[in-house]
Amino acid sequence: xxxxxxxxxxxxxxxxxxxxxxxxxxxxxxxxxxxxxxxxxxxxxxxxxxxxxxxxxxxxxxxxxxxxxxxxxxxxxxxxxxxxxxxxxxxxxxxxxxxxxxxxxxxxxxxxxxxxx
Length: 117
Description:
Shape: flat
């Protein structure tokens, strides 16, 4: 079995709208994610899943220039990621299709983790 990373991309306005939801609405959204992640975990395929803060720093180039935010020039941000195991890229893609991020027109990038021996 191989490991895959699912990166959860969403538009900045969607992330900002989420932050404005009522506590009850936020709980509903969190429950959707918990149910989807729990389903993958129940299959024994989840390694880890984490949400990311929407602020940070980016370090670039040989001069190691530090700028605010990983998204200062973009319209999307990575809101989190999951590492899971699957028999193939196709299986990992199928598992991604239940992700609640699609409800807000987000996207999931599915990438196999490369193993160096």
